[in-house]
What we know:
disordered C terminus; PCuAC_sf; mainly beta; 49% strand; globular; signal; single chain; LpqE-like; Lxx211020-like; Copper(I)-binding protein; 12-stranded mixed β-sheet; Immunoglobulin-like
Amino acid sequence: MRKFILALLATLALALPAAAHEQKHGDLLLHHAWARATPAGAKAGAAYVRIENHGDNADTLTGAAAGIAAMVEIHRMSDENGTMVMAPAGPIEIPAHGTVELKPHGLHIMFMGLKQPLKEGDTFPVTLTFAKAGPVELQVVVEAIGGTGSHDGDQDDEGHDEGNGEGEEHSH
């Protein structure tokens, strides 16, 4: 019996990290919310997440909030005449049966006026607001400063670090 309990606990311990990186809310499935660590004194940071819409209707990401910063917005990086420019993205449509990926050099959650540095290994809550699904609270995991968000194998490599710099939208 003791061996069974130990085996069960070991199995649960392995399953929990993967489950912690995936959250279902209505028709939306949010994968691996993560941020890069920031150096001491940094006033800005960013977080990333993959959002899948398994429903028959589009939804729209309308905003974000977090207690770690004075202001939180959804931003978009774009190439304007050879220069990377960052600006507020406005509402982001999550197409029916589609995916939008917030990732480095594209769409991202921007934290301005950080109240403290983002430290590797820490977690913090972020609330994303959707037009139909409403508010969804995520736990963001802080990775190393040079992190890519692809550890633990909980994301595939499709579309990572490729594309037009505006995030990735995929239809299923």
